[in-house]
Amino acid sequence: MRTFDDMLSKQLQDEEFKKEYDAIQPEMDVIRAIVDARTSQNMTQKELAERTGINQADISKLENGTRNPSVNLLKRLADAEMVLVRGSKDNVKPTQND
């Protein structure tokens, strides 16, 4: 049975696929940081929705990659003291407000 990583590795050998994959990585890094911050606080999507005023369905879409994170959405997350995203485009990390 092939793993996701095996399939991705094979797909990344295709130059056009790799170009598109690399183009979306910054967005995926931000999404991953948001998910990591939420789960590190043992928070459900519903709890995050209540804390931020963002619809739970929109949080789900964001986390599964069917909605792009807008600046407004990121601001609402930061205003709720849920997450600050710091780092270069190659090193995005979730951090909690102290």
UniProtKB/TrEMBL annotation:
<dbReference type="InterPro" id="IPR001387">
    <property type="entry name" value="Cro/C1-type_HTH"/>
</dbReference>
<feature type="domain" description="HTH cro/C1-type">
    <location>
        <begin position="34"/>
        <end position="80"/>
    </location>
</feature>
<dbReference type="InterPro" id="IPR010982">
    <property type="entry name" value="Lambda_DNA-bd_dom_sf"/>
</dbReference>
<protein>
    <recommendedName>
        <fullName>HTH cro/C1-type domain-containing protein</fullName>
    </recommendedName>
</protein>
<dbReference type="Pfam" id="PF01381">
    <property type="entry name" value="HTH_3"/>
</dbReference>
<dbReference type="GO" id="GO:0003677">
    <property type="term" value="F:DNA binding"/>
</dbReference>
